[in-house]
Every structure is written in C-alpha cells, then in structure tokens.
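Q: Could you fold this chain for me?
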Amino acid sequence: MLKRLRAPTTLFSFIAILFWLLLPGKLLGSGDVNYIPPPVFSENETALVMLNAEQAAEAIDGTLIYPGQTFSFWDTAGPFDTAHGYVYGYGTLNGKVVPALAGGVCVTSTALYQAVLDAGLEVVERHLHGVPLAWTNEDDAAVSFHVDPDGRLVRGWDFRFRNDLKDPLVIIARREGMTVNVELRELRPLAVSVAPLYRYGSRLAWCPTL
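A: Sure. Below is the predicted structure, expressed as structure tokens.
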C-alpha cells in the first residue's frame, strides 16, 4: 500500500524530521504542464479546470512509493467526485470538449507522466487523449471513468508506474497559476529511517523540496 505521511506527533519525531529536512532527496525527474485553454473558454471555465488539476495535485502530493511498488493515479487522486473536492470542469469525449466531472485532472496526470519519463521509471499503464491538445505534444496521460445507472463511479483509464529503483521515492506536486509541476525525489537512507516515526495518513506535511 502506498503511504502518505502526516506531521509528527511527538517531540522526538519533530527533532528527527529536522535532520530529514537537512538531507533533501535527489531530484529524479520533473514534469511541468502549462495549461492552455481552448479559445472559446471563459475565465471561469478555465478556473474550473485548474481547480480540478490543483485538487489532483494535492491528492498525490507527498505520496511515498517504496521499491517495487506500483503507483496508481486513479487510486491516489480519486475517486473523482464532489465528495473528494472535484467539480464539473471540461474533458474530451469522442474528440470534442464537453463538461465533465473532475475535468482537468489529466493536466496533473500528464505532469506526473512527464516526471516519470524524466526519471526513467517503468510505465505500467498510460493512455493518450487521442485528440490534439494545446497544452501537450502527445506526451499526455489521460484518465477516465463513467457513472453507472446506480450513480457509482466506474474506473476507466488509469496512469500507473512502478518504482523500479532501490530506494523509496516521494511525489511532490504543486499548482502555480496555470502550471502544474510534479517532481519525483529519492529519499535518502536517513529520511527512510525517519519515515516510520510519522503517523501515516492523508498527506505528507514535511518533505524535501530543495
């Protein structure tokens, strides 16, 4: 199971993390996606897309992936519903731009895919949108789902990759304006030894970002 770390709950944990912060992990790969909306989009429509991209970035930020583990964007950023902070944005269907719940999360999955390529990690599953997009040059990673008659989300396409390195890595994801940036960083041995001092939970409160 992939882990996310929470803030330390003891003084010893807090002191230990100071050593971790002084030993930032090596940058393995990074990806940047500068979202360019269709010309017909209003400022509000663009904002909805970026809101979903930001929500997905926050969901994957701080995810710790141990050697041999496979990361699933769907499992980590989803479910893509309003209960998890997503709104109606815009996606592609049959080559057309249409309103879609969580439309925009593919901006983040694409930035992650680019970081994975940059790091030379093994891609397990990846799908193209199949239509020209102004914000990517066929280096995109689409995710999808549909809603069944009972109103339940049914997963479709996913983006997955495997940590085939000998050390754990952590995902650092940020949205700044119209850009989503994702970094993959290696955790050094001291950082790995500190990690168990945390309570595993919803997000990594402290991580190397230099």
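A (continued): Helices lie at 11-21, 43-60, 73-77, 105-119, 189-194.
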